Amino acid sequence: MAAAPTPADLLPLLERIATALERAAPPSVSKVDTSAADAFLWGPERRLIPVPKVNRVEIGLLTGIDRARDTLVENTERFAKGLPANNALLWGARGMGKSSLVKAAQAEINGRRAEGTDGTNLAMKLVEIHREDIEALPELMSLLRDDPHRWLVFCDDLSFDADDTSYKSLKTALDGGIEGRPENVLFYATSNRRHLLAREMVENERSTAINPGEAVEEKVSLSDRFGLWLGFHKCSQDEYLAMISAYAERYGLTAEPERLRAEALEWATTRGSRSGRTAFQFIQDLAGRLGQRLEGV
């Protein structure tokens, strides 16, 4: 009969078990000085990473989306003042300034506000969470709950594919669970899909569920958590040319109007697209050919 193991025999085994448990356990959420920057990234390490310089476009250069721009800025300003405001879903055509508008709205509102000594006018913060990290959104909400600043949590190009269940974390975060959504947090997302879910994903749920109607409703209802829906559609030729003119004037690019128009239209034709992104790409090419730098880019 083998002798019973001694404590010394068990120690290596216990150390291996402890090491395995440490690896399996989620890392602790680390805090950061939220006054260090006006924008942050939230990554898989579950910590806020300051962004010293945000890649953004001046709000005055976002042409062709006037109604969406004014609506989002108004909603953002109400939130910054501590008034009721809605989570917003910006959906629609690619390259029409959805993510640019979110970043520009934050800068616009902060530019209107003076820093207050009593803390009531602290700068509004922006934190971007990547689509792949959306399951950590509830933890981010919890971390921000007690921060004195007001926060825009932003997810760019948000959508969900088949067999993806992380959308449940988003629903929980938007509803706030038993505690409710933090009063100082608002969620903005951009997507090419109005309902965030692929059509085949919804159809698969319909075909395999015991109650197809309820299964589809469960997934489509995700978009209902956003009180504000802003649609972005492909721009017309006139809107596209107005974008070109606004960019050229802003960056001091001198070009003969008819030549500028012809080259801009040719640029859009070769790419099969007219959008704000296409317009700015043309401006970058034009500036390069003219040997001029684009200030702030």
Automatic annotation (TrEMBL):
PANTHER family: SLR0930 PROTEIN. It comes from the Bacteria. It comes from Methylorubrum rhodinum. This is ATP-binding protein.
